[in-house]
């Protein structure tokens, strides 16, 4: 068990472990479609973070990374198909995490929040720009900063 999560109840833990999936779906689906390059990128980022994250986050991403692609696809299938409805639901879930971030040790919360923003940026870049790389589309750009989660550094 992650030491920073010991004081959280099961629902709070479940939400925290779901954040990378929600972030990936929010950003990937912002333009109305979730394509395979975005799913692959989200899966790749989760896998990389499980081994090359800040050391405090490796345990978190090891848990998140277990069956990540399956969880991602299941979440996509269970969320509303409409962009606005899906975005509203995910935004609410992400906003709920703000109160949970306050319960974590501040340095850990800041690093986790930063890692989530990095996931958002990498997924956003997965299908934009020249030949699909290194650019963030307009719809993704409105969400990539994850402003619905209160920055734990402030």
Commentary on this structure:
The protein is globular. The chain has 154 residues and is an all-alpha fold. The model has no long low-confidence stretch (mean pLDDT 91). Helix content is 66%, strand content 0%. The chain has one domain (3-141). The two termini are 27 Å apart.
What's the layout of helices and strands?
Elements: H1 10-28, H2 36-52, H3 55-65, H4 68-78, H5 83-101, H6 106-125, H7 138-141
Helix pairs in contact: 1-2, 1-4, 1-5, 1-6, 2-3, 2-4, 2-6
The share of residues in helices is 55-70%
| Total beta strands | 0
Alpha-carbon distance between the two ends: 27 Å
Into which percentage range does the β-strand content fall?
A: under 5%
- The coarse silhouette is globular
pLDDT < 50 runs, ≥5 residues: none
- Compute the CA-based radius of gyration: 15 Å
Q: How many discrete structural domains?
A: 1
What is the N-to-C succession of helices and strands? HHHHHHH
Biggest sheet features: none
Helical/strand content category: mainly alpha
Number of helices: 7
User: Could you report the average pLDDT, rounded to the nearest whole number?
Assistant: 91
How would you briefly describe this protein structure?
The protein has 154 residues and is an all-alpha fold. Helices cover 66% and strands 0% of the residues.
